[in-house]
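Dear colleague,

Following up on Tuesday's group meeting, I ran the structure prediction for the two-component complex that the binding team flagged. I've pasted the input sequences exactly as they went in, so you can double-check that nothing got truncated or mislabelled along the way. The structure tokens for the whole assembly follow below. Feel free to forward this to whoever is handling the docking comparison.

Inputs:
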Amino acid sequence: MSRNRLESHTGATLDFTFNGKAYQGIVGDTLASALLANGVDVVGRSFKYARPRGIFGHGAEEPNAIIQLGAGAATIPNLKATQVELYQGLEASSVNGWPSVDFDVMGIIGAFGRLMPPGFYYKTFMYPKKLWMTYEHFIRKAAGLGATPVEADPDSYDKLNQHCDVLVVGAGPAGLVAAREAARTGARVIIADEQSEFGGSLLASKQTIDGRIATDWIASLVAELAAYKNVQLLPRSTVFGYYDHNFLTILERRTDHLALSAPSGTRQRIHRVRAAQVVLATGAFERPLVFAHNDIPGVMLASSVSTYVNRYGVAPGNKLVVFTTNDNAYQTALDWHQTGRQVVAVVDSRTNPSGEIVDAVKALGIEVLVGHGLIEARGKKRVKAALVAPINESGTQVVGAVRYLDSDLIACSGGWSPAIHLSSHTGAKPVWDPNIVGFRPGASKQQERSAGACRGTFDLAGCLAEGASAGAEAAKLSGRGDGGLQFPGFSVEEYSEQPQQALFLVPHTQSTSRAPSQFVDFQLDVSASGIELAVREGFESVEHVKRYTALGFGTDQGKLGNINGMAILANALDQSIAETGTTIFRPSYTPTTFGAIAGRDVNHLFDPERYTAMHRWHQQQGAEFEDVGQWKRPWYFPQSGESLQKAVNREGLAVRNSVGILDASTLGKIDIQGPDAAEFITRMYTNSYLKLAPGKCRYGVMLKEDGMIFDDGVCACLADNHYLMFTTTGGAAGVLAWLELWQQTEWPELQVYFTSVTDHWTTATVTGPNARKVIAKVCNDIELSNEAFGFMDWRDGTVAGVKARIFRISFTGELSYEVNVPAHYGRHIWEALIAAGEEFNITPYGTETMHVLRAEKGFIIVGQDTDGSMTPADMNMDWVVGKNKAFSFIGKRSLQRSDTVRENRKQLVGLKTLKGSDVLPEGAQVVFDAKQKIPMSMQGHVTSSYYSASLGHSIALAVVKGGHSRLGQVVYCPLADGRSIAAEIVSSVFYDPKGERQHV
Amino acid sequence: MSNSIVQESVLYYFHGAFNKSAVPGSLFSDQTDCGLVIKEAPFSAHLNLRGDAADSEFCLAVAKVLNLTLPLVAGTYSRNGNTSIYWLGPSEWLIVEIGGDAAVIEATMRKALQGHISIVDVSGGQTSINMRGSAAATLLKKSSVYDFEAWDSAEPTAGRVVQTTFAKASAVVSNRPDGSYDLVIRRSFADYVAQWLLDAGAEFGCRVEQG
């Protein structure tokens, strides 16, 4: 039996280690309760002064017991030992303290704590600026914020989208009864609680409800809820964020209580909840008292001492002094007395406490020191004594002799702070209530209400009544039930409580600035004197003081220290707490793992990969792939050991000299039907389609309203009032949305419908001088002669037994047939064409060769040669702009703006390097004077650049200021490596300038 | 050159796929114990129909040709045997005939329908899959933000459909009287969706069947 474990509390033992030492706990323990049971006093070192710190609380408020769990890939930093459920084999260590928590190098600096006032880092590490990175590294190492794993996370996380009528946050007494009232109306209810068991504060309570002890009452209520099909119970689930439109996020820890890493299944799950109504029943945090050396291990919250005794069977000490401003903490004296260990005294700051529970404590013969303050704790790594003294009624001065109480445990209570975090997330401004000496949740901004302790109602009967009403009300407002209560009243045994005293800073015999440190925020070592100093240095706003002192910045987010800190600030500023106000809480309520936030959107599921019907064939041929939008397109098809350049040379020459085949299925395809289709299309493109006959195709360019090119492609007339529009691969969705936008908002009178058929059709482009011969082998119902089926025509026919549509469109400048079949036949048609082309050595080619071939022809790629600031004229494509269209077209007016007609715009030209083997880097800047000093006058840039195997030299497309009138001029591309490549401005059409080859 | 014409359905490469978490002592002993079964429908006709819902002649003509009422209530579909019409928007419907021939349907409808309409064969670009098993509803929660449970209390509760996001792709999701769900997914996103489903279904045991 561990030395602090009560004999009445038994269970199966669990082995664990902490900072390398082996210990035993029992089933049901948290790491914190197990450490306390084993008498481990020092669990960490404070952030700034590296003072030894012990376990202070028992839940999310814990500021000191910040630990690293496990090692290796699954290690988790910065967990609170109070929230880590113990499992067999658990390994934990302190996140800070080097070389160990018992001997800490920084502690030596800490001994000179007065040398590190608030703003110490700002003040000390200001200059020289460039050394800040060095300082920061040192500070982080010294302070210790835990270690993140460097390996990939071995665990799996996912998300669930939930919808409910009523979400109840917190399964303490108020939450449980709220859920029950809502559940019985048939409402869809989710109730979530961060602890392993439902019950909240009742889990550590010895009270009775309706004649039953609390734990039994909880068990039957949870069983009742579990029986409802419309209720989801989520234990170990923290509601960590409350966002607009009643959207809340819950982190469910599914396996963390079993092992460090889940061998399979989901370690953590985020529930993304859209709730019609929300009941917040998040409870309250007990507030510590700020006295000198209140951070020595052995000082704890009174409710935490009771929780360890009652719930975990752990008495974390021997001789208890209770220090309180209220009746509530007297319960801790009663609970401790039950363990058989000594209650040295109850120190009450109030001059005349008269509650029933005070009498109950006195009746046990326990000394009650009224009108006293516990002004200082003594001890190093554990409390050895408490110094108590009479204080004045307002709690501002010590007014009598100091007395030493021999003690090793101090339980303190400065009242309770409602956990208003989630309400605060919604933007509701907390309201100070002097009656409860705390902030209540502000007026609701969303469909939510608070019930119980988080609303400032601290008696059990009140919590139950409020919870029930809130549940019924929420259900009613979600459209379920009539708001009536099934269980309107509860019979509860509890002491009636007398008013508490507001005491935020316990006076000392010395002034605050001279007294030993009186800590407000334990994790970040913010003391009362630090806050007062910040005020003396001119800080007034609570937000500024927070940032200057770091109050509330730790992983506990000021759950304990905030109220005391603000009150001390208010006092120093000589204003009320309400005037001072509070800082705003934001998500997350407690730290949330990145793994859970990412969910399953990782690795191959991070972003969809879109495949064509021939994707497996490409893979089997060893294709390298290129990302085009979300599509995976074959980039090139290397034969054994071939480099990209060699493969592209081979593929390109095959197309120019015989025949190649390209998977062009990814091009966007939009089916357009309606009596006004031709008119509509003519308004979208720069040229006209009014006279395009069935069987014919036309190339067009689309502009945005600003006159700049936004997409291009071919449009075919399939039948009267029926067209097929091709878009770029990346532009497909954008073009469809663009068409719908103009039809729905500007020209609803035009009768036209659009339907995406991108996925329906598979396209295999057969191109090269031998293309006709290949097609002829698999298609015998189309007359293929140039006279019967010419360039920019399309025909219906049968290819390899499949009904197909063939377009004579060319992006290579060669004789081309684009064979389209429904995608189920995609692989069949592809393999049939490959087989038919075998005798011509038909060569599959990828996007890289496609780019080279089209660049040889000077065909632009929208988005590569254009960048949203190029007009058709800039691209030397005036020929595609219809000047005399009856209506107009989008962007037409902008083509006449002074800026779009000015001379010296960047214009598309070809660049031919003087040395043919030099390939310009894409993006290289173009200058006219290679000898000009930096900064040089940049005249343009290279947009596309390749080595052309067909031509035997490099080619490039560039946009150059006034380029169209500079043919023959030599320009220079200065490179980062110091070279400067000279090139001649030439026509952008390098190959077959008359365009004869595609017309054969 | 091959003589036979091979068709590859959208989930061709996933037929027979199976995934489950290797939980020691798990409930799943073999492939037959799956909480999620994905079954791809056989090759079917899928046609996108556009037209004026306010034009009663149009609605009647569609009903007559397909022997099925054109659903005009948002989020509903009608079904007769192998043929279904899904409401996609105020002027847009998806016609699916399991095992049907889209060319025949298109030709018949073009003959019967007058005025400004659009009918487009999209059969090659999508597929219909059925998702059944005890985990089907949970899979939808993992994959989509839509409130499918709300269908249980909607009016009517049966014959519901929604076109919505599905993981990072999209799907047309509808309910069946047997408690299972039908999904129409796009071909180019199908590999992603199939892998998503196999991954999300792993904890329940998941397999893909050929229809």
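The longest strand of chain B covers residues 83-89.

Cheers,
M.
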